[in-house]
Amino acid sequence: MKRFSLLLVGAGVLVGCGGGDGGGGGPPTITSVVVSGDSTVFLNGTRQLTATAKSGTTTVTNGVTFEWVSADTTRAVVSASGLVSGVRLGATDITARAVVNGTPTSVTSSAHPVRVRIAAIVVTPVSPAALNFVGDTQRFAGEPRDAQGVAVPGLTITWSSTDTALAIAASGLATAVRRTNAGGRNVRVRATTDGVTDSSVQILVRQIPVAVHLNPSTFPTLASLGQSVNAACVVLDSANDTIPNHSCGWSITGTDSGVVTFSTNNAPATRITGRKNGDANIQATAFASIFAPNFIQVRQAAARVVLHPTTLDTSQIVVNDSMRFIDSVFDANDSLLSAPPAAIVWSSTTSSATVDANGHVTAGSGAGATFIVATSGTSKDSALVVIVPAANARTLSGDVQPIFSLNCASCHDGVGTSLPGVQDLTAGHSFASIVNHAAIQSALKRVLPSVPDSSYLVHKIQGTNLLPPARGSGARMPLNGNPLSRGQINTIRNWILQGAKNN
Questions:
Q1: 234 bridge partner residues
Q2: Does domain 120-205 sit in CATH 2.60.40?
Q3: Which of 49, 245, 304, 453 is in Cβ range 3.0-4.6 Å of 37 for a Cys bridge?
């Protein structure tokens, strides 16, 4: 409350003998009266004022009393001791005149304004129910009261709140007007009148979720492993209004675990990613008991087909002989279609050889050439197959061993045969050392007859030994020399393709 200290200098008044505070210079002269105290008093309450007589700057007390006067006794009265009592709302001035030894003087204080006002506002309800959605309302009442706790009629109350989520009309009707969240926030309600504000009452403004929807409502089929779709859960309150930025828990129901995974790094949105082929029933859950079910499928679609063996030039087989192509089908994210395997349609472009539904190629009785084509969906790959007479078949002694002897045997010479698995590529020893012989650096055989792409020796000379399916180690061979030519590698591959015979 605001305080005042007001001074009015009146005509100097001498304090009689024995009544002064001034010492040996004679009785002091009262030159002013100062009134001190609060400037407000509650209706039907009291407020103590004090008066001080001054002689210049010196306080005078001996023999000094005061006469107190209220300018408007219908608003406030003042006792002989300066106790002000509030009678009616409004303002009045209080003055004090110095009385010396029972004789009033002409020295009176300046007017000390006093305002009579209410003591408090009582807001009800004290513990209001929460507002649970935008548009939810609660009516408040405010009652001004005097110092005795008695209602004071006739005053208009102004209402406000401490948060824009709550609007309060002049009638005291409070309305939730802005989205919050499920947890909500406590908002103080303010009632003001006659210069008094009460903000002791709080109300919780929130949105209670009652339903969850998914956006999108239906999901596209994921056509590749690693493909993702963004989704969001939309949580609604009882007024069917959206609760903003509300996160949900995502899960797979039933036994379809592993078909998709969820990433909520960008909550409240989530990213659903396909991990394996299958159907998944998923749900987004809010507050443990409110959930939205949905369904998503992962079906890898062929985007790239690769045939094996992938000879550098051509695959050569002998007339009336056979070979088998193996297909690898990949989706748009380069993930292999394996479970379930992709459907393949096989065909041959000429009658020089036929191919069955499993990729098994059978050469005709005459020399020729054909392309073997594997098609899966809109993707396909082809490989050239040349059918050669038996006399032109690749041989170990005539075609392959000269390559070994010139480029490999100087290092792989069988020295250290006491060590298990040492490779010997010298003439007369190479067949036993490599054909159907386990590799040291890889899980593959060194040479697997008819399957060059599963022969570790082929990967070592191609420089693909570190990659699947070899997953080996070491450097490309020949070590410290020039790589084998394209034709040399193709010769070794076709010897293996034709059965890796000891011929």
A1: 213
A2: yes
A3: 49
